[in-house]
Task: structure prediction
Amino acid sequence: MKENLSARLFDSSTVLAFRVCASVLVLSGLCGLAPQAFGQVPRPASSVPAPATVRPAVPASVIPPAVTPLESSAAATSDEGTRMMKQTFRQLGAVAPLTLRGADSRDGVRFNVRADEVVLKAALTLSYGFSPALINDGSQLNVLINGDVAATIPVDRVDGGKNLERTIELPVRLISEYNQLTVQLIGRTTLQCEDPTNNGLWATISNKSVLELVTQAITLPNDLSLLPLPFMDQRDARALSLPFVFVGTLDNSMLEASGVLSSWFGALAGGRGARFPVTMNTLPAKGNAVVMIANAKPAVPGVQTTTISGPTVSVVANPGDPLGKLLLVMGRDSAELKMAASALALGGSVLSGQTAAITGVTQLAARRPYDAPNWLASDRAVKFGELSSAQEMNVSGYDPGPIRLNLRIPPDLYSPKAAGVPVDLRYRYTPQPTSKNSSLTISLNDQLMKSFILFPLERFTLDDSLYGKVRSRLWGEGAVLEKLQADDTQSMVGKLSLPLTALYPRSQLQLRYQYDYIKTGECGDIVIDNMRGAIEPTSTLDISGYSHFMAMPDLRGFHTLGFPFTRLADLSQTAVVLPDNPSLQEYSAYLELLGRLGESTGYPGTAITVTQAEGISTVADKDLLVIASGSNQPLLKKWANALPGSLGGVKSFSLSDLVYQARQFVSPDPTANVRLARSEITFNSVADGALFAGFESPLKNGRSAVLLWGVEAQGLRDGISALIGGEAYDKQLEGSLVLVRGQKIESLVADQSYHIGRLGWFELTQWTLSRNFSMYMLSALAAALLLAIVAFVFLRSLAKRRLAVAVGVKRGQQN
Amino acid sequence: MSIFSFTELPEKLERFGKKLADASFWESSVIRAFAAAVAVLLFVIVIAVPLDLIQQSTIGVLAFVVSSKIRRLSWGRGGILIMIGISLLMTMRYVFWRVTETLEFEDTSDAVFGYLLLFAELYGITCLVLGYIQTAWPLERQPVMIDRPVAEWPTVDIFIPTYNEDLSVVRLSVLAALTLDWPADKLRVYLLDDGHRDSFRDFAQNCGAIYFARDNNRHAKAGNLNEALKRTNGDFVAIFDCDHIPTRSFLQLTMGSFLRDPKLAMVQTPHFFFSPDPFERNLETHGKVPNEGQLFYGLVQDGNDIWNASFFCGSCAVLRRAPLEEIGGVAVETVTEDAHTALKMSRLGYNMAYIAVPQAAGLATENLSSHVGQRIRWARGMAQIFRIDNPLFGFGLTLGQRLCYVNAMLHFFYGLPRLIFLSAPAAYLVFGAHVFTATTSMVLAYALPAIVLASMTNSKIQRNHRHSFWNEVYETVLAWYISVPVLMALLNPKWGKFNVTAKGGKIDKEYYDWKMALPYVLLLGLNAVCAVFGLTELLRGSDEPFTALINCVWVVYNTVILSASAYVANEARQIRHTPRIKATFPATVGRANGRTVMCETANFSSTGLGLKLPKDNGIKWEIGERVHVSIFRGDKESTFPGFVQTGGQFVGIQFDESLTLKQTKELAKMTFGRADMWATEWDKHTEDKPLTSIKNVVGHGVVNLYGLIRSGVRGAFVKRRT
Result:
């Protein structure tokens, strides 16, 4: 069995490596995550031959060919532990060439150095061009690292308008862990008074410019207090690849314990994405790994271990690689192992020393729905200060670029009201003496929401009286002004509301200060960079007061935030159903899925449940995450009716019009997005790829199930890659049935068959009627008619009674 | 709608509706309660369902189509109730939406203007809903015959209180009261003179009425009546204002009900005015457009009757003495003693009745300022009752009574809300405030159906009692004047003072009452400013052209209503001291030469007659010729001496100044006192046609705006008269 697995792993490794490597490259290159290039990055056309500054000891051949991430980290740390990285500016985050305009302007990129590496040598190959209008006298390009000058490139007029290239050696001492590489243009076109807005003042730096770093790996101490280092380094922009090694008998508890850790690492890795290759009883030859042990006398080949007496966590060196570390998570049985994993995930930062015995994990208070640390609290108004630091909400300059606030919104917010999410914005700025167009623009996901005018000082002399208001009304000078603050910084209050439909599960609120540049005439332009803008941390955004209610299945919610599994951040209402006799890929897929869920919530899934088809009845009251490939999952046959296609022997898929639709726009009205299955196609030509299907759990109404099915076990990787996403993917998972092949995501069917969440009976009736307009019209008519008839009957009898009184005595006499 | 295209469908539906309403299961109170609960629940849900623009517009159009179809069918009360149901639905949808979605104001000035408008809207909607309840089912009570031997008929005291009115005004009323058809030994007429005038004492003694004067004038009319109550002992008390001339059948029509229902405490009949009120005179709508009182006496009081909430209006009513004494006589705590008296008796469980047959007629207020003064008193009084004896609280009233009384009071609070509506466009156009936080199209989709259906439904309910949009004019004129007294009375019921309504004067010259018109001229000015701002914004290119446009339309509407209102202050000439009443009954003229001419009357007044002769009769009349005019009622004939004032086909006769009391009494009996004198003419206006009506109002508005500007220009050069 073990050999078989290894053999399969070996067989597939080459194919796998190519695909993964390529995908990671394209992905990371496009999204600007600036990963290590693995030598696969095509060299920029204009790049010069390998500069002489590169140490001959590190020949090009050292850069390993296509390898799996697992192997690449080993290969990167060569015998000497040196590594050479070439990163283009594009990979470092410059999506477009850097354009410098004006007499003094700057722009740049950021780069980081791993904690377990030091830089031996750094060189910059700058590909640039500048304006022929620049004069030699005084014009220059400065290269700054963290604000210090690394080099100055003189500007020679004869080279103006040409594409130039120059390699500069950067002083290593300026480089720290987090670095800012800046290019500054000091431009002059005349020896007389320079007009800072002269459009002859420009230079461009190509984003194909290359930063080359040669690093030396260093050995870190075996100390738990460094966690999550070195297993996960925030400075490393590459996708995390951390092998998991299972030692001993693999049971569900051990898988659950591993899931806790993988979701923890997933949360730490964030947007980089995290991969967790799995091996059984075999340590990776190089690099870091997590070793899961459920045995009182752990036997890990090559590692000295003592008998343990309880849950224990330990860091040791990788016997095959002195620079690599192993994170040993141990218990005498799998229950203790789980305890150790939970302790690590929840309290990893307080452990210290090489080994820590976990004596107890306090029973955690049960998490409440929607309380994930990464999500916007939906039970109160959230202050901006909770979303970003005050420092990041302070900007300076005429056009300092947007202040970005990332929001994770529960995908199932529902409101019958048209009014959006209220934002109470408090902001300050330096008022200019005079201006016309200075503004603070608020966008949500690059859609304009509202623009506030930044009134200049002269406007504050306009009185706040009724007359002032009438004047501004007549001559269109804008809205009413508030009083100037004592510190000359205008503190303003702005209100806006964000339409709920524009508030995607992962949204970004962008607040951008833009100041008008006022020309004062020749020799009068003195640029003082005193323009400041700040968003007060006390500004709030409030999504409380919404009901949680959503039509399902909706794989978009699953893709973006792992919904509905992540509703409870500890995954206590999630059960993962593994196939019988799973392969290593399936274990890996399980860990990586949990990594994704952890990334969504920012919290380890400490209450995850793992089961198989035969134990399915014990998890009836949970949302199910079913992993399968080929025909190894008996549930697929059992639940054939619930599934949108027959998976297994003969493959058949339902198809809807969705296939023909190149949709970018997702309608805010969920019913408008429904594309029911219209035809079914049966084939077995698909050799690879994965399929996501969302459906209501056949075990319990209102519970959701998501199936990740690989045509073959390797296909699961495509599925996970699609989930991690990136710029290589132009589509998202959506609808109820999605096919993923390579980097193609095809949503086949969007069917909505059930709803999750709760509405009060009144809201539910409202909701039902608002969805069915003809029923609404009938109800409205019925309400009016019924009221009329009841009133008619009542008033008629009342009138009779009143008139009977009037003739009462007469009647009495007659009778 | 296709289902209405079948011609037989309305009849089918009507038959079905009748069958359903007559079904026996309605007799079970459980089923009725259940159906009511379901109806209300369904209603609430339907109101609260959020719809998008298209859906809301669709439901609005649908409601309009159904409602206007039903409006044209003669489904009677059922049809009206369905229209009310649909109107309520659209109105409540608007209210729900307005309150839940449009109040997220972004700054303080928006919020201030927005909440002011909301307050005005909610007031209007409350009155609309209460009005529906009040007028859903007018009882249309018929007079009941007195079926007892004359000996058993109760004794009735007629009280005619007076303070400062002319004897010429009071004379006819007293004489007509003396001629009421009632056994002479069971009828006494009291002239209650708070003016202590000898001429009144002499007149009373001569004609057979009893003259009372008291040694103080405490509590004005109420005190006067209470004093008389102490000194008399008739079983019933009928009260007439001194200028209300009763018809002889008054007691015959009203007393029957008292004999049948021992708990009945009061029967009220309409107040009818044979002279035009200032609105009718100055806007020249007399006889064409129903006046203010028409709605109240034609519909509201009749509608109140089903809820046992018709109330005493101070005159033309009979009250049972026992309950009146039980509550301590006529209420003196407020300046509307009449309504308060009725409220007090209702609290003790007594019944009230209203008979919609005019059995007395009087003079309307003579000019705008006195008209306004009268309404201020009513408004103040109602606000006082609202404060000191609120019908919503306290013992003894049914829910229907509480709602009807409250609406009677709330009605007079329209001053402030109406002023808000009249100046609201300024909020956006001048100050740039956004009073709704919603798109203009949404506002229209919600507000238009609510407004249009309410107008349609009210037009259907009010038929000939009120023509659409005229009440806007009536209320607008009074809005400014009553809002301050009402507010004061609400703050402290004791503030303000009583003022008596002067009547019976004449206006010698046409003049413009600038003092009265000033608030409306100012409001017109404000709307003109709004128009300037609005046009500026539209021409300059607005960010919100629709909002600006809607506000401009609103300004135009305000301008029309305001200019029609402001023109009411243009006091038209009122020549005759004693207004002529159109009436046709047989008459003969005995001429000095001994000949007798058969003719009919064209009109009459207390001092003369207009006669209509056949065409080309060839009779020559001498001005000043002495004649004897005989008027016939059935086979009864009365003759009065007089002289010819004008001749021709229409002959004007003036009676001798020296008519004896007996002759005057006879004259009153033959003219003002005729049983059918007013009933044939009263409330016989044409049915309301909203479109015609708005055309008329607009016509008046435009003509009057021109007139107003003209007299404004003239007024600037000529010395002002106030």
Q: What stands out?
A: The first strand of chain A starts at residue 82 and ends at 88.
